[in-house]
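Task: fold both queries, return tokens.
Query 1:
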Amino acid sequence: MGAHVRSGALEIWTEQVGQGPDVLLIGGLGDTVESWQFQLDGLADRYRLTAFDNRGAGRTAMPAGPVTVAAMADDAAAVLDAHGIASAHVAGFSGGSIIGQELAARHPDRVRSLVLQSTWVVPDPYLRAWGRFIEWLIDAAPDERTFLEHFFLSIYTPRAHNDGTVAAIIDEVVDFPHKQSSDDLHRFLSAFWAHDGTGSLPTITAPTLVLAGGIDPTARPELGRAVADAIPGARFEVWETESHQPFQEVPDRWNARVAAFWDEVEAGSGTPAPRTAADHAADSAHPSPDRPQTRSG
């Protein structure tokens, strides 16, 4: 069961499952707790996982005033406070990875380790152009389904589009009762285009694993590599056949990889487990994923 927790005047929707070392999951653009369903289901036997709706998404309102990544990082810290969590393994994807970076820089004692999926230091011209296209699409699309059909071309692999996975996700998003307004989407996007992690990344002390999809057209591997290069001791991996959200398309593989990383940190080494021959074979095998049953974006 989920519940709202308070951060100042803001009521943040959170859900918590499982038992074990604490994990905080941070979603991306417009994403809610449901985007992490495969992790909430697949890792709860080993970890206590907390997920939340970002401000302006799902069941968390968008407060008045400027929307900044720093404020959203403080929201994440407030979620930890509300649940009595001193520190947690933090995982974020896309915009959530940027929030995770800022959380680790602003509140280093709260971050046990950091997993950054589909991330960047600062948007390059290509990513900014893609962002302008999405901003245009939000207003130009005649309805939500049409927006999602076009937006998800940049998010999921051709495999997921062709096997019906994306169609199922779109149906779930359209049926989701807690809609994000177009205005809130614009404000959320603007916060990320304005954010530059160049100065904060070198200050991150948490063990960090950076993951990139080899065919992600947005948070491309070179952007993820720049993040890993900027964070002392960070490990960087490219999953060659995956796109922006492998934690949904190949959740069993993603869960196993990040759990191995967390286990290394818990054991005290702070070093991600090395990739194995099986990992490389999986990259080249174009695995048939389980179909996600969660909303995303």
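Query 1 returned. Query 2:
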Amino acid sequence: MLAAAAQDADREFSFNEQEFRYIADLVKTKTGIVLADHKKNMVYSRLARRLRALRLESFEAYCSFLESGDSEDEMGMFINAITTNLTRFFREPHHFDHLAEKMSEQFGNAPTASRIRIWSAGCSSGEEPYSVAMTMAESLTRLSAYNFRILATDLDTSMVANATAGRYRLRDAEGLSKARLAKWTIQDRSRNEMTIKQGLRDLITFKQLNLLHDWPMKGKFDAIFCRNVMIYFDGPTKDRLLNRFHSCLAPGGWLYIGHSETILEQRDQLIPMGKTIYRKALR
């Protein structure tokens, strides 16, 4: 208790338990993300920037502003500040090896114009869907002859904007081989930047989407990547999301989840096929 009081005294803004609970409840309502008590310091550090930007003097004032009817624009900034965006190219590479193998088996000899759809749900700054695009372009040499698209969605509007631009620091190229770096990016070493080539970017549609709200997509997906997203949801929210993913997958479609995530209750619908890889039954 004394340590917590001393920490509060050292902070730029006071931040009490009631304010944290209000913010945690709001985050849960808006995003489904559950903020445990040990996340209080993280919440403070991320939202203190918003208080400075708005020239507010306290978290009490910020909570009041969020609760007012004048905070619609700020609500987006609030959500963007809270959500975590940790990713890199070809993170958990076994997923991309598996995708290449299975998509090549399924579509390698399929008629041209065959429809192929992949969804990156929680795409963050875009490294995941660009990794998917590289994988598909390399494993299906006639990819341009197919009706192929990747949908990439994220809750954070700033991440969607960054992903759409396809521009990264060269140090973010970790995970890309030299061959892939040369083939799929344009490098500007004077600015320490790289940009994903337009042909690859054209394969992806980036959209802002809250996974807990309505989904406008109508067609089925051959694969869905939703990795390190469900760890922030409670059990009932996770179960509902998995049921919705199941409904969106084509028969035999694949679901890839994060290394720290598990599926227990849905194993009759989503069959484990490898490390954090699941498949919808063919019937």
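Both queries returned. Flag for query 2: Residues 104 and 140 are 6 Å apart (CA to CA).
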